[in-house]
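Q&A log
Question type: sequence-to-structure
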Amino acid sequence: MGVKAAIYRRPGPPAEVFDVTDIEVPEPEPGQVRVRISTSGINPTDWKTRAGFAGRTPDWFQVPHHDGAGVVDAVGAGVGTLRKGQRVWLYLAAFHNRYGTAAEFAVVPAERAVPLPDGASDDLGACLGIPALTAAHALGGDPGQLAGRTVLVAGGAGAVGHFAIELAKHAGAQVVATVSNDEKAALAGKAGADLVVRYTEPDVARRILDFAGPVDRIVEVALAANLDLDVAVLGAPGTIAVYATEGELTLPVGEFMKANTTLEFVLLYGVPPERLAAAVRWTSDALAHGALSPLPVHPYNLDDVVQAHETAEQAPTGKVILRVGAH
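Response status: OK
Response body:
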């Protein structure tokens, strides 16, 4: 079947490499589903891969974007839990797969298509994927272990930070979030953070400790920049889960050893299948209970994928999405 898709055949700037054209999308093979895409979400990993930072060149062409929302259009053999016509949200759609979500249809392994409740919008479905699953994994992957604990979310208005706040609150944790300005403070507060502080203000560590005491877990977006604050507020033992890269780092090994600190690095591509499945279950449960909300969106049409990627590269507050199908 011929469908409209955004593709690139080599890495590079969006205006130079993107082509919006018709492609043939295959029938789903055993264990796969085909999804009619309504909304496609753009993550930093999507535009960075297109830009060439991952060091990969498509062997033919690549439809980008891991995340999205849509309706199951066809089901391959051996798929027992999804049915044609079912609303789903997608994650890691373009991982080792040519057919990502920047198209009218995507073909993905069935486990990467997750039922989307009737009360959840397509925008929310397209915002989940990598950010929510990264947040769930960085929170430890088990909501039962968070009840009564205190979590610090660095960058509480970012995509991962947003869902980290909501997932942790749904699990019964107390949540502190750090942000850079008042607009982001409002977003983190709306997501449910019990305390929101601007990390540029003086005595941030004292404010956090006075409000919450030592924290049990930190979901960290900028470890080098925030290391002193993290060391000051982390309890013993405690865990710092880092999901963004920023070059070299010098660690206070002695302090970490005395506190029995655990330092985790989170990259969704390498998470073991059973732990990824646990993150999907946690996200799905929170979604079913209405505990998750969409980020502010910056919508573009599929034909405007170049402008969408250029916007995403500027790291706006919220989520850049493509409106692909009917809403």
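Response note: Residues 134-270 form a domain with the Rossmann fold fold (CATH 3.40.50.720).
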